Amino acid sequence: MTDSPTHRFPDSPMLIQSDNLRDSNRLVHAFSTRQGGVSRAPYATLNLGQSVGDDPEAVQENRWRFFGSFGIQPVQVVRVKQVHGDGVLTVDEALASRRGFPGVLLDEGYAYDALVTNLTDLALVVSTADCLPILVHDPVHRAVAAVHAGWRSTAKRIAARALLAMTAAYGTDPADCRVAIGPGIRGCCYEVGAAVTDAMAGVLPGWGAHAVATRPGHVRLDLAGVNRAVLEGAGVRPDRIADTGLCTACRADVFFSHRAEKPRTGRMMNLILLRAETTGKAPAAPGGMSGKGGDGAPGDQCRAARREG
Ligand SMILES: [Zn+2]
């Protein structure tokens, strides 16, 4: 740790926000990019992952920058071990009052791929490098969710499970929720084989509408489209789902992409937090770009921005 997390940096991280979640000054959210940090290649520059081989001090500095952009302290950051499963952790007062919380979650290996809470001033965080981050806000019951949706968890309907957990804990009606799908690998770049298509066939009858055949036994899969269908199937209104449409593999200049840059690359983090205070303006991202609205066409932006080579 090199400095206070709340001071301003001349080289601020570039962040992505969705217009769908920007209308409340009591809600904070962001999808990180790889820009505005201090790590060196292949983790340049805003790598937020400590377990990928990067210099730990650089990662710590990057985390100060990312979370500090919103005045978020380390003790407010709720993260768990992500395992590509279907587990949803409800972060309630009993858990949050545990000694050592929230660090204890990682220390003890809490393994989940979605987090939900209605507690204020806790940042639910999932990390990604191609998998889709999905953020959910229930403005009626004041609750949020952060979901890590790779293909395995998507096949287990992780986004719908997060909504079910919100309903069970807070009485959430999915029709009230606003959802943002963040940067992840898109159909333009995500060719998959039988293991993935077999799994998709089990989760969604119409999954083939989100796939384009490439060569025998392979398709290019629109994982965001599948997740959108899962969300709609769970009761979320289509016009309340906004997809940033950003492809991590197309835009490896902006994002870390496991597939485009393997074997080694960094990790982004994606956060959502309910503010306790109603006074003051919503903190703006220090530099960045907004996601498109719910009617955006995922993939168009990818193709337009595809790098040479
Ligand atoms: Zn792409």
Task: Based on the model shown, name its key terms.
309 residues; alpha/beta; CNF1/YfiH-like putative cysteine hydrolases; six-stranded mixed β-sheet; 23% helix; globular; disordered N terminus; disordered C terminus; binds zinc ion
Ligand set: zinc ion
Name given to the CATH architecture: 4-Layer Sandwich
Number of strands: 15
Q: Which residues form runs of ≥5 with pLDDT under 50?
A: 1-9, 280-309
Radius of gyration: 18 Å
Number of helices: 9
Domains counted in the coordinates: how many? Answer: 1
Q: State the strand order across the main sheet.
A: 3-6-14-2-1-15
Corresponding CATH superfamily: CNF1/YfiH-like putative cysteine hydrolases
| Shape verdict | globular
- What does the main sheet amount to? 6 strands, mixed
Name of the level-1 CATH class: Alpha Beta
Q: Can you tell me the CATH topology? A: CNF1/YfiH-like putative cysteine hydrolases
Structural class: alpha/beta
Round the mean pLDDT to the nearest integer and report it: 88
Beta-strand portion reads 15-25%
C-alpha termini separation: 38 Å
Helix content percent band: 10-25%
Task: Report the order of strands and helices.
Answer: EEHEEHHEEEEHHEEHEEHEHEEH
Describe this structure in words.
It is a single chain. The chain is 23% helix and 21% strand. The chain has nine helices and 15 strands. The strands form three sheets. It has a six-stranded mixed β-sheet with strand order 3-6-14-2-1-15, with no helix packed on it. Strands 4-5-8-7-9-13 form a six-stranded mixed β-sheet. The longest helix has 13 residues, at 56-68. The chain is globular, with a radius of gyration of 18 Å. The protein starts with 14 loop residues before the first strand and ends with a helix. The relative contact order is 0.20.
